[in-house]
Amino acid sequence: MNGALAVARREFRSFFISPIAYIVLGGFLLLSGWLYFSTLFLAGQASLRQFFGVAPVLFVVLVPAITMRAVAEERKSGTLELLLTFPMDDWQITLGKFLASLGMVSVALACTLPYAFTVSALTGPGPSFDWGPVFAGYFGLLLLASAFIGLGLWGSALSKNQIVGFIFGLVLCFAFYFVDKFAPLLPDALAQVAEFLSVDYHFENISRGVIDTRDLIFYLSLTVIGLLMTARQIQSTRL
Amino acid sequence: MPSSMIRIEGLTKHYGPTQAVKGLSFEVPRGQVVGFLGPNGAGKSTTMRILAGSLNPTGGKAFVGDIDVVADPVGARKLIGYLPESNPLYDEMMVVDYLRFVADVRDVPKDLRAQRIKNAVERCGLSGVISKDINQLSRGYRQRVGLAAAILHEPDLLILDEPTAGLDPNQIVEIRNLIKELGKEKTVILSTHILSEVQTTCSRVLIINEGRLVADDTPERLTAASTEGGAKVHVVVGHRHGQALDATAIRNAFAAMAGVSGVESVEGDGPNTLGFELRHGADDVRRVLFETVVKHDLVLLELRRTQVSLEDTFRKLTDTRRAA
């Protein structure tokens, strides 16, 4: 476990050394802020619902941009070989990468908290701002991000090229985001499967404030599958 | 305390259809400094990677301090400090941050961490650069950072894959001295292309070729073996009065000398001079040589004993084209 934490700490720090982190964070905040506030006043509703509406699709790009270098860069610079000779299992390397990426997503999300404070300050004198859905929404976004990080790391582990890693990750995340978008056109049974596989569908449940074990299990399993595939890919370097 | 630090039995490694290591077996006792020699692609790095734990063997057994590297990889890796061939490092980190990271990953106890880092920094002469970014360092310093990281957890076994590759002569001497120093208390296995390095730093040489062990001995005995216990004398002669020389006659005179086992004509160093290379056994032939030269009205322009080096042995053992 110490190994995983050490890997996570190093990885998290190195994000902030490279300019990519700031570009990615800045881009995310710019887009989410613009998409959110441009509709907030039209809707006239003091909630973060519009933000939570666009966040999943932004995450489809944000998360692979964060995870793309995680394994690919180590492979390219040869430091993966060092990691492989440290006294820890491959899952610890994977877990370390996961925690660092989750930390990075948390930073991105923490930067959006001012939206909530702004809106709560804008709430009229009568009704009070409802924090319940805000907490649920952020919790859901972290779960969704975990699942995407698993997929993104897998993408990054497949190649030693960051860009290839980004594209693999993007395709995987997009697939799980997009899968239910044509559900209404599908026969019932298929539509249900599509909805079950969609990260967006489960997120909508949670952001409504309903925390159901089925949604939790979905996110956790998707995360674990992604991480297992990542660990397997790292392990194959030893062959 | 286990008797051997490394034990390899019938080790094989295949990359797809290519066989990099074909049934390698050897043992290294504690405290030995072993040089691992072989041409490129002989399987040196592959063997070292298997020992260090970044590669799994296809077959055979490898033990580090009696721990099977396949059965208990994490346990075996704890005993090892490893410097990979290209010395990969996290370029964007500061030296001290990198060493702290390695200490954390290696699970160095918190209370020992500062002291161990300090020791490694001092031994490797890094005190002046600890707060520099690794990508600002020269190649020699990078190599020292790699070494410092490898000895940080005070491992019993150091595996150094071409530790002096790409360094300038001064840096090579520095790193070599450092390795010698480390070899006093640790078992070291190092691979190299520079044969003199083995002669100066190692007490034992393993030469592998095409994935198999072809020699295993001390550097001295290996060099002796290739000349059958003898040496060569290089000699250049001229006529006393600068006249032309009869090459065949002189050659025959040298060949007739006691102790000389063979004569070869080589280039002289000017007009009316002749060069010869005399092979001889254990006896010193220089005295007889001088007398022969005087007797034939010649002058001695050059007399030089050439040491047969490990290089000759290496070439003899690994030149597969000639053997085939």
Give a nutshell description of this structure.
By secondary structure, chain A is an all-alpha fold. Chain A has eleven helices and no strands.
Descriptive notes:
The complex is a heterodimer of chains A (239) and B (324). Chain A has 239 residues and is an all-alpha fold. In chain A, 81% of the residues lie in helices and 0% in strands. Chain A is built from 11 helices and no strands. The radius of gyration of chain A is 19 Å and the shape is globular. The mean pLDDT of chain A is 90. With 324 residues, chain B is an alpha/beta fold. Chain B folds into 2 domains: 4-225, Rossmann fold, CATH 3.40.50.300; 228-307, MTH889-like domain (Alpha-Beta Plaits, 2-Layer Sandwich), CATH 3.30.70. Chain B has 12 helices and 14 strands. A 6-stranded mixed beta sheet of chain B has the order 6-7-8-3-9-10, with helices on both faces. In chain B, helix 4 packs antiparallel against helix 5 and helix 8 crosses helix 11 (310-318). Chain B is elongated and about 80 Å long. The two termini of chain B are 44 Å apart. The model of chain B has no long low-confidence stretch (mean pLDDT 86). Classes of the chains: A mainly alpha (239), B alpha/beta (324).
Would you spell out the secondary-structure blueprint of this structure?
The complex is a heterodimer of chains A (239) and B (324).
Chain A: H1 2-17, H2 19-43, H3 49-77, H4 79-85, H5 90-110, H6 113-122, H7 132-157, H8 162-178, H9 188-197, H10 199-207, H11 213-235
Helix pairs in contact in A: 1-5, 2-3, 3-5, 3-7, 3-8, 3-10, 5-7, 5-11, 7-8, 7-10, 7-11, 10-11
Chain B: E1 4-15, E2 18-29, E3 33-37, H1 44-52, E4 59-64, E5 67-68, H2 73-78, E6 80-83, H3 95-105, H4 110-123, H5 139-151, E7 157-161, H6 169-183, E8 187-191, H7 195-201, E9 204-209, E10 212-217, H8 219-226, E11 231-239, H9 247-255, E12 260-266, E13 273-280, H10 286-295, E14 298-306, H11 310-318, H12 320-323
Parallel strand pairs in B: 3-8, 3-9, 6-7, 7-8
Antiparallel strand pairs in B: 1-2, 1-4, 4-5, 9-10, 11-13, 11-14, 12-13
